[in-house]
Amino acid sequence: MPEQDDYEQIVIDNIAKYGCHLTLIESNGYTPAFIYSIGLYQNYGHPEIICVGLDINVMAAIINGAKDMAAAGETIVTGKLYQGFLQDYDVQFLEVQELNYFDYLGFGSKFYQGIDYPVLQMVWPDKQNKFPWEDGFNEDWKYKQPLLDRNANFRFYESETLGVYTTSDALAGAPVLYVYHNENGDWQFHTSLEPDINDGKLVCLKHLVEADPSLNSIYFLQYGWAASRADRDAEWEVEESPDEDEDTDEAGDELISQPDSVNKPPSAIKKMINWLKGG
Length: 279
Hints:
22% strand, 14 strands, alpha+beta, 8 helices, 23% helix, 4-stranded antiparallel sheet
């Protein structure tokens, strides 16, 4: 990506030349890709548009189509079926909650110098033309398209009833300081780097998030990544693939060490990661 000042100028130039700028956030393998517009509100008084979870080129075409409608004086509204955005399928639009702006619309909020601008999410159906809020929607697609008019209090791309691993200390109210998202998709939430395997508990993810909403801040944690913090009010520090062995040269000399987490040795966080494996 260009330097920050250069990128801001690109946004300004694209808005002037094309009517809007498209910001792409690519998938990291866990969270879905999404694209949103910047400039529709400034140029046409029309809500910005965000689209999540489809092919990048398809999402770009959808938002450009919305831009053409706005430029022609048409206003997209919620609660209405629209044709022409996806071949053979209707789509709908939802009003994005402001609580979701921080996670999804960072560049847009920087451009508008705050969150005082409207945004609509284009929502696509499954192959049976059912929308995510309708009975029978394809469960395999449910978390490829988070609905941004809701769920601001539960941001994970998982079911609220997903079973996650923790210990009795966390259930008793001790702050969760160490989180690991296993390669196989399991989540661990611990109060200590060395949790007692004999004290393991399986609980609903929603239970932990309701007890500590700050856990929402690491909803994006990729497979194999860990996050840690010094206390409940501290910022999370994210560590990529902390369970990988240190890289060595042919003679076995250490070349690169994995980064520490909250000034703890990598071996300690590996103990937490291997908790489910019996240490």
